[in-house]
Amino acid sequence: MPLIKRLFSPAKQSYFLFGPRGTGKSTWLKGHYPDALTIDLLNPSSLRHYEAYPERLEQTVHGSSAKTIIIDEIQKAPVLLSVVHRLIEEKKEWQFILTGSSSRKLKRAGVDLLAGRAVIRHMHPFMAAELGKDFSLDQALQYGLVPLIIESADILDTLKAYIDIYLKEEIKAEGLVRNIGDFARFLEVVSFSQGAILNVSNIARECGVSRKLIEGYLSILEDLLLSFQLPVFTMRAKRLLVSHSKFYYFDTGVYRSLRMTGFLDKTTEINGPGLEGLVLQHLRAWNDYQKQPNKLYYWRTKYGVEIDFVIYGTQGLYGIEIKNSKIIHEQDLSGLKAFLEDYPEATVVMLYRGGERLKIKNILCIPVEEFLINLKLVPLNEVIQR
Length: 386
Description:
- The protein folds into 2 domains: 15-122, Rossmann fold; 128-386, no CATH class.
- It contains 17 helices and 13 strands.
- The protein has helices at residues 25-32, 44-52, 55-62, 80-89, 104-109, 128-131, 137-143, 147-150, 155-172, 180-190, 200-207, 211-223, 252-258, 267-289, 334-342, 368-374, 380-385; strands spanning 15-18, 37-40, 68-72, 95-100, 119-122, 227-230, 246-249, 295-300, 306-313, 316-323, 347-352, 358-360, 363-367.
């Protein structure tokens, strides 16, 4: 596959670039900063070298003519942060770009050392708008959009091996959990919570471990950037709302690879959360790549009235419902109608698997593939109204 232009735009100052493994951080940096000094901490000899003698980084930077210094997978050697801090303080027009696929060790090491001197950016899986005519909704739902996976010669094998990379190189190597088998079981069990409100007690019971251990596992997943939780929208709430967050894997292909399937599983039980997750991973990427990011939520009352996503920011308030069907029935719009009653200033939209734009009871229904393709670095209203 030829090099794909990303919608990601870099910071002008030094910055952290976080993103799960395989999302194209290193590839993008090589193309954007061809003359940069690059230090790859995934290289065992480089890692040993700089962990043993972190001051060598200072000597290396001073000995190079490069003005851009890339340190790949900085979480492998957080001791280098203090050296980077000193070098930035020298104000010699160096730009440091520190990539990472985990924030866990950086949090413990004090990433705040660089607060104000290095901003934070994120890189996500491909967006449909980046792939253009190469985007296939069906393939995205099956295999996801992680560049490492969909650009491989054998997508299915690479997808299956993807989580093993984390289990071996992050979880086991860093000693993050005592029992790899328990954690692997947890990864499968929690996949059934994709797009659902987290019930930690149920997950603990299914895994046969304590609730506290599951809470720790969830924290590890988030620190490794493999999952995230979506909070409930409560601003100016007029109804009793639920309080717990919803769970999502960062990429729908990763979710599909972990979600155990069998004879009794209905396709809708798997594809519905998959489609919901695919839309949300696009919204997260669109949101992070913008200069004026919004906040992402969901909305659900105590009585089960719900819409999948709420986007709130300076550009407006939006409610989005996802329907994994080619046909929209009037009752499918009940959540959006209830949200409009509480927030009449909101713009609401239904995304569905059909092929035509429809307007039902004054609510716009848009083909989900069309919405994803048009989701670029423009206000959401422009995407909806085009």
